[in-house]
Design goal:
By secondary structure, this protein is α/β, with parallel strands linked by helices. It has two domains: 207 residues, 3-Layer(aba) Sandwich (Rossmann fold), CATH 3.40.50; 213 residues, Rossmann fold (3-Layer(aba) Sandwich), CATH 3.40.50. It is built from 18 helices and 14 strands. Strands 3-4-2-5-6-1-7 form a seven-stranded parallel sheet, with helices on both faces. The chain has a seven-stranded parallel sheet with strand order 10-11-9-12-13-8-14, sandwiched between helices. Helix 12 links the parallel strand 10 and strand 11. Helix 2 runs parallel beside helix 3. The longest helix has 14 residues. It is globular. The two termini are 37 Å apart.
């Protein structure tokens, strides 16, 4: 099937054609007719499946039937709630692209920037409002936004909004909307909390599931490189030196991401960090630099990276495994998108063996364990050991005896290649392990 068969107006089809979109994805095929029919919808779909268009296209069709604005109003008629500023900006960009021939009026409101321009835009009038929960509540408290005319509300990446603690905010927003409305919920997983939210605020929603819960794209190759914790940075540099492409690296903490990005820059790589403590301008600039190739390595926390829309990202590296197994799925969703091949590498030390087992159990598949020559761990992860089991430790003297040069230079910004050369390691082609 093509977009021509889904009941969209010529103005929308023209915009799709101009952007090179001809064939709808499975989630678009399933969701668009449901939304056009006016039904509430719960859609299970991973990032990278085309879910933004799955709600944006029929939403625009309903607001602008036959390419015309049906109602003359200055109040927002559609609301899209997203968990992060980055995702809000990307949804807004998609709405603007799809609605370019409709003169669609849309704005974003999110934190990290001044409220003045947002208030002015709301006063001028808008049809589609894309917002993060916290900033939207700020506007509601100031009475600078009127939600009484909302006809359609979209909860995008609802599972992540719950993970980030937005459930009370979501309930406050939904409770302030007109009862007669269409509610669309998109989520990678349907937890008990999400089902409870749906039962409270949705009316007989239709449910579609495009991929099984917690699944990853079949085009992604998973690879685990076991390594001692103290040599993770050296191994990361070794991999990045040989990759040559854009790489997204995941860290666990904001401070750790900043520290890692500085280390990579000192080693001669073009790197930037993105996390919640960065200002909106810093985050926007880092993402733009990464997309345009001015930055080759983007180091991110889970929350900051959620919703990043990066085409043709060949590789994701987990410098540290996430504490929650489901976050592995969200991380890996950055690569292997739209049928492209992707590589997901995890640097795993002995202390992370429990997290690795949880990930394998969640995915219901084995992950290839591939030691890298010269970085073989003294204490490899034990995948058959119970989580939290006692593990032998080694003395600091043993650590120094293992790789003295790397230990002396670890984290000081000196290029790791010199250390490896002195050890006489890594003389084989990089393609062996990448």
């Amino acid at each position: 099937m093509s977009f021509d068969t889904l009941g969209l107006s010529p103005a929308l089809l023209r915009a799709l054609n101009e952007h090179g979109y001809t064939d709808p994805t499975p989630v678009q095929l399933a969701a668009i007719p449901v939304v056009l029919a006016g039904s509430d919808l719960m859609a299970g779909a991973q990032t990278g499946t085309g879910k933004t268009a799955a709600f944006a296209l029929p939403m625009l069709e309903r607001l602008y039937p036959a390419g015309q604005r049906a109602v003359s109003s200055r109040k927002p008629r559609a609301l899209v709630l997203t968990p992060t500023r980055e995702l809000a900006a990307q949804v807004q960009e998609s709405v603007r692209n799809y609605g370019k021939h409709l003169n669609a009026r849309s704005i974003t409101v999110f934190g990290g920037v001044g409220m003045g321009p947002q208030i002015d835009a709301l006063r001028r009038g808008v049809d589609i409002l894309v917002a993060t929960p916290g900033r939207l509540l700020d506007h509601m408290q100031r009475r600078s936004v009127d939600l009484s005319a909302i006809e359609i509300v979209v909860l995008d990446e609802a599972d992540r909004m719950l993970d980030m603690g937005f459930l009370p905010s979501m309930k406050r927003v939904l409770g302030a909307l007109p009862r007669e409305r269409q509610t669309l919920l998109f989520s990678a997983t349907f937890s008990a909390e999400i089902k409870a939210l749906a039962s409270q605020f949705m009316r007989d929603p239709q449910e579609i599931q495009i991929a099984r819960p917690n699944s990853v794209a079949a085009t992604v190759t998973h690879r685990v490189h076991p390594v001692d914790q103290e040599f993770k940075r050296d191994l990361l540099l070794h991999l990045l030196e040989r990759s040559g492409g854009q790489t997204l690296v995941f860290g666990r903490t904001k401070h750790g991401c900043d520290k890692l990005a500085r280390l990579l820059e000192k080693a001669g790589l073009r790197a930037a960090a993105i996390h919640g403590n960065k200002s909106q301008n810093q985050r926007t600039r880092a993402l733009s630099d990464f997309k345009t190739g001015r930055v080759n390595v983007l180091v991110a926390t889970d929350i900051a990276a959620r919703g990043l829309d990066i085409d043709q990202l060949p590789m994701v590296i987990n410098f540290e495994l996430p504490m929650v197994a489901e976050d592995y799925v969200h991380r890996i969703g950055r690569t292997g998108r739209a049928g492209a091949e992707g590589l997901a590498i995890s640097l795993v030390c002995r202390a992370e063996e429990g997290q690795l087992r949880d990930i394998r159990k969640l995915l219901k598949q084995d992950l290839a364990i591939v030691p890298v020559e010269g970085f073989e761990p003294t204490q490899p992860p034990r995948l058959d050991a119970p989580v939290g089991a006692n593990r032998p430790t080694k003395s600091r003297a043993q650590q120094h005896a293992r790789r003295p040069h790397a230990q002396q230079n670890r984290g000081n910004g000196e290029h790791a290649a010199g250390n490896r050369k002195r050890r006489g390691q890594h003389t084989k082609p990089a393609s062996r392990n990448i």
